[in-house]
Amino acid sequence: MSGRAHVAFALLAIACLEIGLTGCGGTSGQQPKQDPTAVAVTVQVSPSSASVKLGHFQPFTAAVTGSTNQSVLWSVDGIPGGSATVGSISASGQYVAPGARGSHSITATSVASSGSTNSASVDVVDVDFAVLTYKYDMTRAGLNSDETTLTPAGVSSQFGKLFSYTVDGLVFAQPLYMENINIGGGTHNVIFAATEHDSVYAFDADSNQAPFWHVNFLDPANGVTTVPTSIANDPGGRTGLGPEVGITGTPVIDPSTNTLYVSAMTYENQQAVHRLHALDVSTGAEKFGGPRVITATVAGNGDGNDGAGHIPFPSLTQNQRSGLLLLNGVVYVQFASFSDVHPYHGWLLAYDALTLQQLGVFNTSPNGEGAGLWQGGAAPAADDNGNIYITSADGTFDLDMGGSDYGDTLLKLKFAGNSFSVLDSFTPFNQGCLNFYDLDIGSGG
């Protein structure tokens, strides 16, 4: 190297050292410039909060962005894999709650970037979160008195849509929920949904995947379809059920036999048919010799009588809108109308839960008309003494004159010995006015 080259190299080294002191990678202690194209690694845990029953499980998932390596390490309260005290979590994110109540933190740490973490909160409780009937229980109050997760702060910061499922028809029935079901080759929490296209689905409640099972009660090749609302309704179509009628009322589940009971309406070669189905919650298969065709007859000379003192059940004009009731081994199914299309009455039918045999029939207007039992979709209520509470809509009322027609009336019933008895009732003083203007009190539960 020439002397001139040595001088140039020395000057360049000095210049680089001076620049380095101000941030060019020298010895000033400052960090090098960040690569502007680098992407930060982030982790998102879902769900962000959950409530789990003692000893039960809750699956968590972690989504990693900024790295092709999607692997994470799970911990509970800072303990890798958890422990018997705080609950354990598997490599796949399945958390198993401990045997004591408490609140814990579930954390996922990126394998690609140990500083990238995200946590979810979990409350371990000793209550059952199954939703087996309309509005939680037979009071129909809609109250979950053991709620631990839904707080104003939690809802405002964490509440939101996680995923959705596609079904084949409109859904008017309330979805139901069971946890820890042996289904689909494993143990899962399951959502059950019923549609107006006469379908029942069993979905994984914790992740978006194909349904565990899907049953449909139609057979178009043999003339079995849903009921077109243009046939079932009046010309105004005021029921608002959409283009077809299939399953409208909320089903009910018996956890002791793992059976889901559902009432479905079909149109079979120009005839309307109602059936009571009993489905295995794990497979969707029919149980107890079902389904059972719903028919009934009561004594009376009211709307649609046969001329011989009997009221037959008119399937086409009876709408099964209310949820089902399961009480003391009996399934109760009640009916109203499609937009006041006659003939119709309020019907409450009782079926043995294990044989599907009809046990009893109650008609709200045997010598009149109307008094349907629809209650805006609400199911009959019941108390601890086995009394049943229903509310009828507008229709004939003659109870004050010793009759047996109960339009616009709240009824307290007892079912025993295969028959219903009226224990008590309440009818507003202005029932005639309510009936005239179609302001029926039976529009709510």
Core attributes:
five-stranded mixed sheet, five-stranded antiparallel sheet, mainly beta, disordered N terminus, 4 helices, 8% helix, single chain
Describe this structure in a few short sentences:
The protein has four helices and 33 strands.
Question: Quick one: biggest sheet?
Answer: 5 strands, mixed
Q: Structural class, judged by helices and strands?
A: mainly beta
What fraction of the residues are assigned to beta strands by DSSP? 35-45%
Total beta strand runs: 33
Which residue ranges are poorly predicted, with pLDDT under 50 across at least 5 consecutive positions? 1-29
Terminal Cα separation, in Å?
99 Å
Q: What's the overall geometry?
A: elongated
Number of helical runs? 4
**Percentage of helical residues?**
under 10%
Mean pLDDT: 89
The largest sheet has its strands arranged as: 2-11-10-5-6
**What Rg do the Cα atoms give?**
32 Å
Question: How are the secondary structure elements laid out?
Answer:
Blueprint: H1 3-21, E1 42-46, E2 49-53, E3 57-59, E4 61-65, E5 72-76, E6 79-80, E7 82-83, E8 87-89, E9 94-96, E10 102-110, E11 117-125, H2 152-158, E12 176-183, E13 186-194, E14 199-204, E15 213-216, E16 224-225, E17 227-228, H3 229-232, E18 244-245, E19 252-254, E20 259-268, E21 271-280, E22 292-293, E23 297-299, E24 310-312, E25 318-319, E26 325-327, E27 330-337, E28 347-352, E29 358-363, E30 381-382, E31 388-391, E32 410-416, E33 419-426, H4 431-436
